[in-house]
Amino acid sequence: MQPFKVIVLGCGSALPTLRHGASSQVVEVRNKAFMIDCGEGTQVQLRKARVHFNKISTVFISHLHGDHCFGLIGMISSFGMLGRTAPLHIYAHSQLGPLLDMQLDMFCQKLEYDVIFHPIETSESKIIYEDSGVEVSTIPLDHRVDCCGFLIKEKPTLPHLRRDMMDFYGIPLCYRNNIKAGADWTDPEGNVIPNSRLTQPADAPRSYAYCSDTRYMPGLWKKLKGVDVLYHEATYCDDNDKLAAKYHHSTASEAAMTARDAGVGKLIIGHYSARYQDESMFLKEAREVFPDTYLADEMMVFNV
User: Fold this and answer.
1) Which of 37, 67, 213, 228 is catalytic?
2) φ/ψ (deg, to 5) at 118
3) Contact at 8 Å (CB) between 262 and 219?
4) What is the pTM of this model?
5) How far apart are alpha carbons 169 and 59 in whole angstroms?
6) Could you count the other beta carbons within 10 Å of the beta carbon of residue 235?
7) Which pLDDT tens digit goes with each residue over 234-254?
């Protein structure tokens, strides 16, 4: 099974602190590296995480608050100084397009690679990226500005060949793709060997959902049902539930309720308010609702 992992670069909220960086993650799946959000200082965090700059092919921006996008133009500039030639794809709300063009004209006039902007509609669930192995969909969220999360899903793969059976029946290499696609094998004596004897079931497709920023949405779980790993913002604890409602954020227990109702495999919480010095209370509140909860922290890696 190929690696599918989430690298946390920043998990703080809007106000900078010495404890946490602004929101950003790298998701590595099927030999690709996607970035989700790009808060201030993200390129420094990439260095600390030892993620090679040229690995990042695509950036998804959840919404246009600075702690989720202020690091973008600096990162683009650094990519250029390092001699990048591969295109960089940016998916974000359409309002970022003109601003990004202005910044590129001002600071990045001699880039030797293309920055390709893809406007997205944050108010609907829609596939916005797709290749042979992965698809990425938007998840509408409820924040003070247009905002969406992202669902990254592997596509189903073909069954695994049983190497012992391939060798036992002497099946030539040129026929093996047909068997992976479901064909039986007929040996030289005319005996038909069923496909089920020659293959093992494919690995189940895995999925990761990123939900930040949003107030608690009672029906959100329906769009996250069965996700293997969910990252959900938990800006406040229950002691500040009124602030969470006012600023359209979630509490740790509300994030856990979403995870519980969706039946996810694992919950990661982050986007902590700067008013908290000890995140253990986030974990305690969330685990009372959903035990398989973990605190995000910079440089942590979570396997999906």
Assistant:
1) 67
2) -120, 110
3) no
4) 0.93
5) 47
6) 30
7) 999 999 999 999 999 999 999
* The pair of three-digit structure tokens given for residue 304, joined into one six-digit string: 């999906």
Residues 16, 22 contacting (CB under 8 angstroms): yes
| pLDDT score of 302 | 98
CA distances from 16 to 21, 204, 275 (A): 7, 40, 11
Q: Please, are residues 268 and 294 in contact by the beta-carbon 8 Å criterion?
A: yes
Establish whether 67 is a catalytic residue: yes
Q: What is the pLDDT of residues 179-227, one digit of tens each?
A: 999 999 998 999 999 999 999 999 999 999 999 999 999 999 999 999 9
In this structure, how many other beta carbons lie within 10 angstroms of the beta carbon of residue 233? 30
- Please name which of 135, 275, 120 lies closest in space to residue 205, comparing C-alpha atoms: 135
Distance (Å) of CA 208 to CA 125, 150, 296: 15, 8, 15
Instruction: Give the CA angle between residues 229, 248, 251 to the nearest 5°.
Output: 50
Pair of tokens at residue 248: 């359209």
Output the CA–CA distances (angstroms, integers) from residue 171 to 135, 188, 244, in the order listed: 34, 10, 62
Tell me the DSSP string of 97-132: HHHHHHHHHHH-TT-SS-EEEEEE-TTS--EEEE-S
Dist. CA 279–CA 210, nearest whole Å: 20
Alpha-helix runs per DSSP H in 190-279? 195-198, 241-246, 252-262
Measure the CA–CA gap between 124 and 265, rounded to whole angstroms: 25
